Amino acid sequence: MIDLARRIHEVEARISSACAACGRSPESVELLPVSKRQPSALIREAASLGYRCFGENYVQEGSAKAQELPQLEFVLIGPLQRNKAKPALQHFHEILSLDRPELATRLRQMAEELEVTRKVWIQVDLWDEATKMGGCTQNDLPALMEALGEDPRLPLQGFMAIPPPERRKAFQEVAQLRALWQDTLGRPLRLSLGMSDDLEAAIAVGSDQVRIGTAFFGSRRGQI
Ligand SMILES: *Cc1c(COP(=O)(O)O)cnc(C)c1O
Q1: Which residues sit opposite 31 in a β-bridge?
Q2: From CA 187, how far away is CA 44, in angstroms rounded?
Q3: What is the best residue among 211, 212, 216, 223 to mutate for testing ligand 1's pocket, by most ligand atoms within 8 Å of CB?
Q4: Which residues line ligand 1 (CB under 6 A)?
Q5: Nearest to residue 20, comparing CAs of 200, 173, 145?
Q6: pTM across the whole model
Q7: φ, ψ of residue 11 in degrees (nearest 5)
Q8: Three-state SS for 223?
Q9: How would residue 1 be classed by pLDDT, with cut points 50, 70 and 90?
């Protein structure tokens, strides 16, 4: 408990100084703890320290935790297969990894059938990462936007990305993409950029949410 509290405090302090360095208010950055491959007991501790919403990568693992901890919220940040659209909509409050038109179509059908509303974010990959981590390319983005069709059941929040660490301009590129689509859609969009190792750079380009796993919870357990 003391360890967790200390780590959380350190992450919060890093966010505050990153905000101070670029003239942003610390409240403008949401800290999303990433609890993949972390035990439920640790998530409960984080909840007792004030955190209510957690990022999970795997539908099965996240669904199990959501059922075990119904007082908390889980959001999906990992790749989503079309055939898992239903459990994803049932157990996660938001989906941050929408990355292709077929998935948007499937999610719209299932959301209608289940009569649920879920916030979604589009995961982009502007660097041809060979879709290792998923992500929509810039060319495919208009088709994805059209497939999503401003469906009120799946309100678009903004863009999520996991840029290659060696690509120094990557965060800036996603920020430009956001600006472009804000103009096109005529409304504000959010950015979910930045993880344990690079949250400062993400905050500097205007990220609204940082997704923090190891710096928050400590090292992860083996593959589940
Ligand atoms: C695991 C993961 C994170 C957290 O990574 P850390 O480096 O442990 O902070 C954030 N976002 C996504 C999409 C992840 O898969």
Answers
A1: 210
A2: 36
A3: 211
A4: 34, 36, 57, 77-78, 162, 195-197, 211-215
A5: 200
A6: 0.96
A7: -65, -45
A8: coil
A9: low
